Fold this protein.
Amino acid sequence: VEAISSVEHPIFLFLDDMQWADASSLELLLSLLVSGDHDDDNTQCLLVAGAFRSNEVDEAHMLSRYIQKFEEAMSVNVTSIQLDVITKSATHILTSEALLLPLRLTRGLADVVHSKSLGNPLFAKSLLRQLVDENILRYSLPKKRWVWDINDVKSVSVDDNVAELMKHKLLRLPNEIQDALKLISCFGTQVSKDIVSKLRSSSENSDDAITTL
């Protein structure tokens, strides 16, 4: 890291979903950050930002132990940032920018999105996608902008947790894709296409599903 980074060209590394990181990955990160003495003339110009779901990481979680090690290291400055739900005004901006429309046109829609998503940005974005999928939020060629019926938006039901959200997304996939995903899930986080192809029947739809995945 010291060989390829400098004050003029620092390195920024972002690691998402760190609650799923294994011991080897966390140990490598620890070694990268705290190994060796970094004096003023040999500074490691590296910034690491890690994100994880606090509701899945308690004191007994492996990640918590490594965060403590980072905090105890003399060569590492650790800053913790707790991300809360976004405000209504932030949801207004998110909706406006997503639809490329001024705030005055999207305010009513954004109010409903914020109310249904409870300020969760993931749910807010997913709700907008759901509205598009259900043709409630649609692009009008004559008006050259996105349009919607606010009453139809209000009538849409939303999921109150990530698991339900992902389940409904999967259920909207074609049946052959769902079947392929069921099979692949038995192998954990990684599986080769060749293995899946051998286990599935040699139909055209099955091969297309595997290729799509």
Residues 70 and 76 are 6 Å apart (CA to CA). The longest helix spans residues 103-117.
